[in-house]
Predict the 3D structure of the following.
Amino acid sequence: MAFVKDMLRMWAHSWKRFISIAMITLLGVAVLTGIYAGCRDAFRSTDRFFDAQGLHDVQVLSTAGLSNGDIAALRKVNGVAKVQAERSQEVTFDLDGRKSATMQEIGTNGIDQPYLQEGRMPKKAGEIAVTRKFIRDSGKRIGSRLTVTPESASSDTSDTNDTNGADGTNETNGTDEAPSFPTKLTIVGVVLDPQNLSNPDGYSAMTSFRFTATTDYTFFAPSDGVTGILYTSATLLVKGAAAESTFDESYENTVKQVTDRIDGTVKTDRQKARRQELLDAGNNKIADARAEADKKFADAQSQIDANRQQFNQQVDQIVSMQAGAAAAGAAANGANAGAAAAAGATTLQLDETTRETMRETIIAASPELTQAKQQLDQAQSQLNEQKASTEQTLKTKENELKTSIPQVRWYVQDRQSLGGFSALKSDLDSIQSLGNAFPIVFLLVAVMMSLTAMARMVEEDRSLIGTYVGLGYGRLAVASRYLLFALLACLIGGGLGLIAGFLGIPAFLLVVLQGMYVMPGLRLEYDWLYGSLGIALFVVGVLAATIYACVQEMRQTPASLLRPKAPRAGSRILLERIRPVWNRIGFLGKVTARNIFRFKSRLIMTVGGVAGCTALIVCGLAINDTVADLGIKQYRDIYQYDLMVVSDDSDASAMRTKVASDGRVTSSLDVRIESGDLAISGGGDGDSGKAGSSGSESIQLVAVPEKHLSDLGEMVTLQPVSSGMLGTSGVGKTGSLKLDDDGVIVAQSAASALGVKAGSKVRLTNGDGVRATAKVSAVNRNLIGSDVYVSETYYAKLFDSKDAKNTKNSKSSEDSEALTWNAVLAKLSGSDTSQTDYAESLEEDSSVMKAVSCAHMADSFKFDLMGAVVALIVALAGGLALVVLFTLANTNVSERVREMATLKVLGFFDREVHHYVNREMMILTVMGVILGLPLGRLVGGMLTMALNMPSLYFEVEVKPLSYVIAAAATMTFALLVQLFVNPVLDRIDPISSLKSVE
């Protein structure tokens, strides 16, 4: 019992060390669990919401729309649980200018169901549900009415439905198949689109590079009132996918198995079948037109023949009359009756030549007959010409039909293609990466501080330990006094850390997240396994340090322990050997210098602890500086062009004419831009890329005309980069990189994510879904987005039928054609504001699909979530620095109580004692800051490995002000600690402190 009481008194006496260890553990556990828990809570709530609303696992789009045969084929794919055919239509309306919206049919199979936030779901024709973004922008409310105008051609079916010929033939199934929605609408509800969780009422970066919606709003309408049997898309749910977390790799693998099956024979067969349907429909139209024309021509010919027969009968009657009159005249001139009868018979039996001669004579003699004959001949001639012309037109249509209907393209996409989903996943992944990296530093500092505190605690009880051991107590029993002390401190600190980690920090992160995204059903959850392991990690580290301190002290005999520990022997320091400097230092300065370098462990612990905390602060500020400059570096330094305009292939010529005629462009470059995919090649033909592939990245494939390869460097800064140590990269000279026909230039953001470098082989997928293996000629400096530049010649080499013959989606040789330059990179005159306004005006043009102003992107790019996490990390790092300095300062004082008492006996005033002690701490703090600043920059350089995000490369930059802030913060904490230490120095009693231990 006495042993226990003494242990409790010892613990109470060492309450400062207890608080120090508990606080360090609290901060470490909070950092370890807090960021993880916040991201996990967001992941889980979002996953539950997606499952409840039936967010599709796979979406299939087609350039020719989807037919019932396509839907039936998708239902037969192994692994598909549900298929929902969807119809949509793009419409426009007036809302402070022309705005666009997508009329989306609410599916009846439970997939992609909008989440009702206010009002009710639409049920009747003309009723719609809108998003809160539309309510906010328009000022309308439930019950308001709206009139919309359908686009002239649906973006999904314009390639095939608008091919009517002048003669009325149509090479498709007809525009009556395209979906059509009511135009007079009534708002009955406000909903959340599960495909886009961005918060319109918060500070969501809606102008960020990651949001790629083609229309301004989405309106949800019931099936009632929707016409058309052509579907714009098909959404699928995969068997077993709902049981997996949508953000885990297991979910991606489950979905990928189904997408691979669709990409196989289903996609290829249905693309061919759908095109054949269009060809058959066109041929049927032509056949119907030919039959109709033949009928009309036959009717006209019958009419002409009837008129001609009537005309001939009239002329024959006149011929007969004239022949009979001639015979009667001959009989009257004296011929006998027999002769007259013979003459009559001769008249009836006129030979054809004579009759034809008489007919021509009679017609020539009569103006009326002459005119009638001319009209008949002219009608026959015109009919013959129409026949020939129509037949030629139909034959031309038959010949042109195959080439006029393009290849049908299927696009099989998963959730990663949804801008809102990928943005949320990227944000959370990046923050979780930081949550995995920073606790390591906290753990190291905790172990160092625990070792320092517990070593001093054991040393103070040196004689007591010797007494207990001499009395027969086991060394383990004696050591348990300190082990239990450290364990209790860790458990209490860890418990409080769990509260902060699973409640405080997640609540803060989720407040920030909810300012960016809408996540219904969000709740905080505790993870017993992760929380227990978090505490166990710090318990093991602190107990290991305590065991080390106990072993170091208890390996001596009781007799040695009962005697005071011999003071450390004095020794010369390096500074003493530099006589010109040493001789000019005062007495107290020399004492301070000897004290600093004589106690090596204290020097290492103090400098190391301060350096670690300073490095954390610098690292946090480095993240802030890096993110703040991303937009400016990308859109003002790397992208030298001011405007990028993209159009559909069919509108490319009109778009280029529009841009050129506006008079704003000073220089431009026509390119082709496609959405594609980049993956590590499987080492073979690039056919599937499954073997050896470790991931893929969505890219923007930019093809450059062969004659203008040198002009690319005027629009984009081409700088080669090479991978360095610890995730850093080296940047080459500007302009030293050239695009050629030997390979592609890959953006640094994509190359870093996939581990690609110059000379690597990659699997490249173009906008048509054709895959080919390409060589990477260079990696270009690029921070935002994933651009891959390819020359026109190398593009053709990769994706034409000859080189892509092994791919399942390749074009046939007769369908290969020259590239259509569907985009323009342009430099503009005028201010940033005028350039932004011009880009917005271009988007109103029907020939323009997208117009992006680099000035606007540079100003609007932001990463709010990262800024909030940086503030959290800097605050925690500052708290750690304060605890570390407090622990070290108290340890320093406890080690030197006799020394301080001696100074007081010698006549030092309290302020002089303060200055004597604090000067050493300030010098050690300055040394730690000097070491911590470059260390923080080094750790910041490793962020490119931790923050490995799609379409982003963190080119770490630390501004001079950040170094100043980090140093000033650490020094401020050191001064604050002095306020706590000085009263301790004042309470030192010289008499009791100088009593002999013996």
Observations:
- The chain is about 55% helix and 15% strand.
- The longest strand covers residues 665-680.
